[in-house]
Amino acid sequence: MSIIITGATGKLGSLIIEQLLRKVSADQIIAGVRHPQSERAQCYIKQGIDVRICDYDQPETLHQAFDGVSKLLLISSSNPDDTVRLRQHAHVIEAAKKCNIEHLLYTSFAFLGDGIDSTSLHHLHLATEHAILTTGLPYTFLRNALYIDFVGILGLDAAIAKGELSIYPGDWKFNVVTRHDLAVGIATILSESCHENKTYELTAPRPWTFEELAIALSKLTGKSISLRQDTQIQNWIYGFLAKINTSSTSVDLERFIGGPVTPLTDSIKPFIGSHLPKST
Ligand SMILES: NC(=O)c1ccc[n+]([C@@H]2O[C@H](COP(=O)([O-])OP(=O)(O)OC[C@H]3O[C@@H](n4cnc5c(N)ncnc54)[C@H](OP(=O)(O)O)[C@@H]3O)[C@@H](O)[C@H]2O)c1
Q: Which atom of ligand 1 is nearest to the CA of 57?
């Protein structure tokens, strides 16, 4: 069995390969990269991992990269334009079909098509899922929750300095996850052979609230941090959050991790590093 991971130099791709190395031998893993001379790609080569050029904008590289491969994990493109991303994904899907890949897995987005979707992000992921279905290839849709990184846009430094976290009013709930947890779960799925034609919602099993975030911040920093609802707040993230489903949950991710997801306090530590007491 050989498993190719596209976007292998990215943050999620690197973590998936790190986790996959615990489950299968290096010679079963192929890192699909844009730049084989990059530090990360060279590191893979030293680990005994085959590195192949895999550029979503250059279909010929994809045909070469997928030759003889059994499983393909398409990590969604990071291009900021969803129309471009759709074309890039189509290139990968066409190449997967031509190369007769045995199993095509795709990192989609959690809880698509539940009625509140109106962003181009939802259309992109649904269109990619549909394009994969047109191939007739066995597939798995890994519908990833929003990454915990969004907390970095909430003004945590200011909240800690002021002792007050300002948020836009609403019944906010967050099923968000760390990339590390996703990587552990996805590596399990990639290393097993019972996931064909399945869709998994890789979210936290219980959503947390802004009240819980303020408590976590207080606990980590040792400072009292209260919550304030502010209708005047200017932050694009709330418009985005309102259009995606961050409240529904699933136990899929914990099932594949084989234990609990990373607790909120640990998940947010990287985003408040300079405020943590030395012993934390
Ligand atoms: N669920 C969420 O909250 C969330 C948030 C942000 C993004 N995402 C999606 O999840 C994906 C993985 O996240 P991440 O944090 O690992 O992103 P990342 O660190 O930015 O990595 C993106 C990867 O995609 C590769 N890539 C970009 N354009 C490409 C192209 N034209 N052809 C081939 N490879 C290309 C990059 O290659 P280089 O190293 O050569 O640049 C990199 O390896 C993102 O790409 C995005 O679609 C999800």
A: 31
pLDDT digits (tens, 9 = 90+) for 63-103: 999 999 999 999 999 999 999 999 999 999 999 999 999 99
* Domains parsed from the chain with CATH numbers: 3-275 (3.40.50.720)
Q: What is the pLDDT of residue 118?
A: 73
Ligand 1 centre distance from Cα of residue 255 (Å): 25
217-237 pLDDT, tens digit per residue, is: 999 999 999 999 999 999 999
Burial category of 182 from C-beta neighbours within 10 Å (exposed 0-12, middle 13-18, buried 19 and up): buried
Pocket of ligand 1 (CB under 6 A): 6-7, 9-13, 34-35, 54-57, 75-79, 88, 107, 144, 146-147
Burial class (CB in 10 A: 0-12, 13-18, 19+), 224: exposed
Question: Which atom from ligand 1 is nearest to the alpha carbon of 150?
Answer: 3
